[in-house]
Amino acid sequence: KWKLDENAIQESDFIKYQLNNTLSISETEQLNKLLPYCNFPAFKINHSILDNLSNAENIMKRKDGRFYNHHIQISNIYDLVFYIALATKNKLYSTDIVKFGLDIVAINKIQQHSPFIERVETVWAEKDGGYSPIKYVLNARYWLFRELGNFAENRSNYNLIIDAYKYIIRKQIESTGRIELEIRKNCKDYIMFDIINQIFLNAKNGQLFLCEQIYNALHEFLAGNYHYLHQYSKCCLKMCYSVSEKSKKIDYINKGLEKAKVAAAMVDAEYNKRNNENLLITQAHIHYTIATLASELCFVTQYTDISEIEYAVKFAMSALYS
How far apart are CA 264 and CA 255, in angstroms? Predict the structure, then answer.
């Protein structure tokens, strides 16, 4: 701006083009070649510009930076529900805010965290948001993941996190009128193992024990939901990998197999009733998880049980050919 005012450069010297919130791979690679000349760390691919700026300022300890050391503020369950829901969906519509009872919370969070979180009014209402023209958008996903991960590092916060998930699932169920198909659809993102584990990001790439506690707590709401049971079984598989004691590995494998088998039976029954081919895709995913768990059981028990080997091969073939 100073050079423009001094006529040292002209407006025409700038290359103007639309800049998206997240740079493309080629844009990131080009920029990363230049950043070292500014003593600035490289940008991460697929991270938003704001995520990269925030991360860079924290790496470089730029205490005077606009985005340095910016933290979430949690004083009650509603604060946490807002953060978890936003981290899960990346954007919340006004219909979501009303459903979760977060009207005042949303206003406060926009004031606390702009531009990390923004309130956006659109000309055209979006169908996914119940045709709501207002949405709350997360501009820095990995910033929020890191913040929630730090919050979850303290195990005394587990109960509050679990209560937040129970609150979210209860509200999702209540809003559907108890229609099973709608319940599965509305709850799906909130019970996906990969999403839950990513939201509470840490140096070890997740919080497995917390995930297990969340699934345990949600059983009273979702025991009849095959998506939930399948995701629970995937959590058990990851827990098996995380422990070294043989007996604990076997316990987690058996628990995971139990959940996955029930889920597979539910999908079979649903397919026989509705004949929807999308259910065959769901079934294939479940069979793959069963095959992985059963194969791991064979490995842990050193392939001593022929019936376990035959069972693993059966589902491995099913997964491969589905």
Answer: 14
Q: How far is CA 50 from CA 25, 70, 316, in A?
A: 16, 12, 43
Look up the pTM and report it. Answer: 0.88
The answer to whether 240 and 256 have CB atoms below 8 angstroms apart is: yes
Nearest to 102 by CA among 120, 125, 84: 84
Q: Render pLDDT for 165-200 as a digit per residue (tens, 0 to 9).
A: 999 999 999 998 778 888 999 999 999 999 999 999
Q: Is the peptide bond before 115 cis (omega within 30 degrees of 0)?
A: yes
Backbone angles phi, psi at 60, to 5 degrees: -85, 0
Question: How far is 188 from 198, CA to CA, in rounded Å?
Answer: 15
Q: What is the DSSP string of 150-174?
A: HHHHSGGGHHHHHHHHHHHHHHHHH
How remote is the C-alpha of 320 from its chain's centroid? 27
- Letter for the amino acid at 73? Q
